Amino acid sequence: MYVATSGTLKRLLRSSHPHLILTHSPCSHKNRSRLDAATYYRTLQPHPWFVVVPLDPSHDGKPVGCVVGYVHANGVGWIALLLVKAAYRGRGMGGALGEVVQTYLRQRGVQRIGLDALEHMTEKYGRRGFVETNSVTYVVRQGVKDVPAVFAEEDQVAKGLSVVGLDEVPRERLVESDRECSGLLRTTLWSPEGLFDREDVFGLALVGEQGGVGESLRGWVVVRQCHDGYRIGPLYAESKVEASTLVKETLKAIDKKDREGSVCAELFVGNRDALPVFEELEFNAVANYRRMWKQGDEPEEQRAGGKGRRCMFAGFDAAHG
Prior knowledge:
By secondary structure, the chain is an alpha+beta fold. It has helices spanning 17-22, 34-43, 93-107, 122-126, 171-182, 192-196, 240-257, 274-279, 308-311; strands at residues 2-3, 7-11, 49-54, 65-71, 77-84, 113-118, 130-141, 161-165, 202-208, 217-226, 229-237, 263-268, 284-294, 312-315. The protein is globular, with a radius of gyration of 20 Å.
């Protein structure tokens, strides 16, 4: 049992707990769906969630903060969803959650540990040995009902390429492509039970004419609903032009499905083309995270010269890296 200044830490008791915390996230721009809470709970298993519950006997016993330390299939650790409800901050609960999750990962021999920190938290994480290596920009576009996605003739898919549903791409190819760009091996996430069984999720792939769909893959994108509209991510592409094509095709697909709500994404700014691609399509930067790694030990794929710096335009979200 780990005790904070005025709370006690426990392992997660029920799958409903993540949503209880997410609905009181300290950032209004998180824009999470209730379905995301279920996805997190399934895909971040078997690693435990830790929740903090106030010791005050008058409290209803519900958790007011949470964190999970996840270990990807290739041994890379990630600290996700370290959240404390606003009314309970400043009581040492966040620090206690941070300590217990790092202890959990160290006990399992995890050396490379990353997280996405809010800008005002970077100094605090820095004191715990985390070094800022990059940044993530959260962007939002008004829904296509308010700002129609109108494209010129030259914005059509380039000759020799075609757009297909993501379900046509072998799952193992998606897992491989994701690892090549992010340095994270996420076999659980890219599966029917992890994400693709959700009715709100769809995806597109950009493929060439030579070889099969997997061999000629030039880029792909996943889209899911959030509390207000849709979230794009990840978005991987071999070039800026191909990334732009996928965003345009995504906006067209959203227009056909449901014209209500905004469209958001978390962009990997280590790729200098990421923000321009979205800004050209009327997305606006709203907030920034700081990508931090313990002792600055980021995956090779995210370093200068790594494929992520060229091909990773948007990530899944801060909960998965």
